[in-house]
Write a structure and sequence with these properties.
The chain is mostly helical. It contains 7 helices and no strands. Helix 3 packs antiparallel against helix 5, helix 5 runs antiparallel to helix 6 and helix 6 runs antiparallel to helix 7.
Length: 241
């Protein structure tokens, strides 16, 4: 029987590319199902508590608005705490054994750049964590209390998320097709489940929210122009009289 090649096994840690320098790597001690169950349980508690608070402060809020609040709370926590964790610990990610560290190491099977302090990934995640994270919480509060600046900030955060995601995909695909460098293991579920699907969510939902904000802003300006036009006609009529 022939031995598996490096194209299947990956480098010394099993990651790709085979020449990736991953210093101090420690294998995860938690199983994937355990990581996912704990992660999901945490979100059920956080989003459940958020929903109760929203109902208390604005019980008449439409269900679509409540869903948007839950999204911005979820994405704010992921950006600020989970991605902020990576930004702070990027030089020692390979050996981290706490919950967030093991989650990142599991995801890194689909993108080893998270274990090598890749400059683009580090800069992108830092901006995402400390810009879009806090602003996501601000948008959630603006929706709850129906602040007039909700849509400008919602559009800003959503566009920033889409922009970061597109660059994330583009840099990886450029290296793959132009340089022949692959950061993902060959198993399909790592690419389609982790790398593609988990990131594509941050294009689909922000895309819808960006469209919603643009549409709402357009209606607001249209109504303002209509009111201005009526006011001008009334003023002209008064002067004639």
């Amino acid at each position: 029987m022939s031995k598996p090649t490096a194209k299947v096994l990956g480098g010394p840690t099993g990651h790709f590319p085979v020449e990736a320098e991953i210093v101090g790597y420690l294998a995860n001690t938690w199983s994937v199902p355990t990581l996912l169950i704990v992660f999901a349980a945490g979100w059920i508690v956080i989003l459940g508590a958020t929903n109760l608070l929203v109902k208390r402060h604005n019980p008449t809020l439409a269900s679509g608005e409540k869903a948007a609040i839950l999204w911005f709370v979820l994405t704010g926590i992921i950006h600020l705490f989970f991605e902020g964790y990576f930004s702070y610990n990027h030089t020692r990610m390979a050996g981290r054994q706490d919950f967030f560290g093991q989650l990142w190491k599991e995801y890194a099977w689909s993108d080893s750049r998270y274990l090598t302090s890749d400059p683009f990934v580090l800069c992108m995640e830092t901006v995402t964590a400390f810009c879009w994270g806090p602003l996501s919480f601000c948008v959630a509060l603006m929706i709850t209390f129906q602040h007039p600046l909700r849509h400008p900030f919602q559009a800003l955060v959503s566009l920033g998320q889409i922009y970061g995601d597109i660059l994330y995909y583009a840099t990886s695909m450029f290296d793959h097709y132009y340089k022949g460098v692959t950061y993902c293991r060959p198993e399909a579920y790592y690419f389609w489940g982790y790398y593609f699907f988990m990131n594509f969510i941050w294009i689909v939902i922000p895309g819808y929210l960006l469209y919603s904000s643009i549409e709402a802003s357009g209606r607001a300006f249209q109504a303002l122009e209509k009111q201005s036009s009526i006011a001008e006609r009334n003023e002209i009529t008064k002067k004639r009289d």
